[in-house]
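Extended Data, panel c. Modelled sequence:
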Amino acid sequence: MPSSLIDYTFVTICTDQRFPYFDEDIFAELCIDNLLYAARLKSFIVHGYKINPEHIHLILQKYGPYSVSKFLHSFKRPSSTQINQLICYRREGQRSKLQLDERMLAFQTRMVDEYGNNIGHEFPLFKWQKGCDVRDILDHKALKQIRHYLKIQHVKHQLSENKWLYLREEKI
């Protein structure tokens, strides 16, 4: 793992039309699951994340050959596909066409428990907004400020709780 901050990156990604998908715990958990999988796949360390209802913030550190762009593709594409599998599982016979692994079957079961066996929800098809904000974190001071920024997201966005916040233990 690198010790230099040169490979630390702060990323903000919004949902399309800033729809609050992540008010739904199932979607937030699936997002985290995909985030951690993409990090392992593309050799990134997730130093922090905060999932707000319609956007997420990430603190990442690269330690392999892949770019932030490749990492984001490996995160955004599967998370979109899998959230849409949960949203659309009953539309036009798609349920029978899906081949879900145990993890996705568990998410689907929770979705059915929450909303019943019919569509029963108002979620539009999930999409990430095109592009995202990617900024290099240049020094310890900037990293400390960004970590604080993630900690106060619930206040900034007037959320009742500071849900879906993760900050890796660090000695700064």
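Residues 99 and 147 are 39 Å apart (CA to CA). This feature is highlighted in the accompanying rendering.
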